């Protein structure tokens, strides 16, 4: 058992044989090549009746507090998506409900996983328009900061954007490129791209700077620091530059990149994915995607 399993086993929500089997499958998938990865083997049921009153309460407290800033400074795409997938303050979101609503917009869906996934397995989910999500809720004593992701980071922070067709296409294209590349240089560049967009991205909307990255959406401290601090270098998004920028974890982000639109991100990603997948001999992956998504 790794460190991560020890850390997350406190939750009744994932204390099951199913979760143990799924984590074993996830760990074993690290040795598989892209075409052998079976994402279904890593999924777990969201045992909704196991959520405690404290779980629902913590979700609600953070949801309401974050919405105070996000109502004005959250990207319209985030706010619209949160409404579409029916995120509410009064309960932890049931993934079944989220997915029913998401399916109608973009065909994306979210699936419970027990904890840590190897990188390629994470990308294998994205490549199929599926998002692996933790289902645990942070304890009340750690409401402000939890080092590992929980359902507040994953579903509140990430999933609303999946309701947007342009972001949906970007993320699947990203997943295909990251899954099939064999080139460690591309792998590192793609990790940086993910960090500076999906996790910590800013966007100009309505002549304002707004938040869309999950790390900014789901964290009170990061969200305010990103928009208000004088110590942040906010740079216009440019894919090459983003891919060449190293990132630092464990403290507030000193560098952030600002999109002008999600089309800008999608188009830059499609161009980069063509290069990556061509080098990997998997350009067909992009063609099949383009047909299904457009
Ligand atoms: Fe994340």
Could you please describe the fold and organization of this structure?
This protein is α/β, with parallel strands linked by helices and 294 residues long. The protein has a single domain (3-293), classed as Aromatic amino acid hydroxylase (Phenylalanine Hydroxylase). The chain has 14 helices and six strands. It has helices at residues 3-8, 17-28, 53-73, 76-84, 95-105, 119-127, 151-158, 165-180, 184-199, 214-217, 220-228, 239-243, 262-279, 283-293; strands at 109-112, 130-133, 202-205, 208-211, 233-236, 255-259. The protein has a four-stranded mixed sheet with strand order 4-3-6-5. Helix 8 packs parallel to helix 13 (262-279) and helix 13 runs antiparallel to helix 14. It is globular. Residues 1-9 have low confidence and may be disordered.
């Amino acid at each position: 058992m790794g460190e991560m399993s020890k850390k997350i086993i406190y939750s009744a929500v994932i204390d099951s044989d199913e979760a143990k089997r799924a984590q074993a499958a996830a760990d074993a998938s690290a040795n598989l090549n892209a075409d052998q990865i079976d994402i279904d083997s890593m999924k777990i049921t969201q045992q909704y009746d196991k959520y405690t009153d404290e779980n629902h309460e913590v979700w609600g407290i953070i949801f309401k507090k974050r919405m105070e800033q996000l109502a004005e400074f959250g990207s319209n795409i985030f706010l619209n998506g949160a409404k579409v997938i029916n995120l509410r303050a009064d309960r932890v979101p049931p993934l079944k409900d989220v997915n029913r609503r998401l399916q109608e917009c973009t065909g994306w869906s979210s699936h419970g996983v027990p904890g840590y996934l190897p990188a390629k397995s994470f990308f294998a989910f994205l490549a199929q328009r599926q998002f692996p999500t933790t289902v645990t809720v942070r304890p009340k004593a750690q409401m402000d900061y939890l080092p590992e992701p929980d359902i507040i980071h994953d579903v509140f922070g990430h999933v609303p954007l999946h309701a947007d067709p342009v972001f949906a296409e970007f993320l699947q294209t990203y997943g295909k490129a990251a899954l099939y590349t064999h080139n460690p240089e591309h792998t590192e560049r793609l990790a940086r791209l993910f960090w500076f967009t999906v996790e910590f991205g800013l966007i100009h909307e309505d002549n304002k700077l707004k938040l869309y990255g999950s790390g900014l959406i789901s964290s009170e401290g990061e969200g305010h620091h990103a928009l208000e601090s004088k110590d942040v270098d906010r740079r216009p998004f440019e894919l090459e530059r983003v891919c060449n920028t190293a990132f630092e974890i464990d403290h507030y982000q000193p560098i952030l990149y600002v999109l002008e639109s999600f089309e800008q991100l999608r188009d830059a990603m499609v161009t980069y994915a063509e290069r990556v997948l061509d080098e990997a001999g998997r350009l067909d992956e992009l063609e099949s995607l383009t047909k299904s998504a457009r």
